[in-house]
Task: structure prediction
Amino acid sequence: MHMPRWASRITLVVEDVRFQRLQDITEEDAIAEGVETERCCGVPSDACGVYLGGCCGQPEAMEPVEAFRQLWNSLHDKLGERWEDNPEIVALTFVVHCCNIYKLAAEVAHA
Result:
């Protein structure tokens, strides 16, 4: 939207559009969203809790949907769109092509 088409380096082709409730997300969908299913507790540097990184022990496993719920709330809570409200969302499935949109269009035209 903010980049000229000639400057694009990747092209996303939408393959599926579905309307669903947020809490209907599957484990596979949550993993496809890129959630991390293992996490380490942070090590605060001072009483203010400034995160230094690192791990305080063994990483703890997390179910993908629970990890997605936590991510959703961390991103949308301030907007008033909490997981618990189970809003209707639009879920897009797309394929990533690592090329300019004009190159992809030319390849499709010659196929």
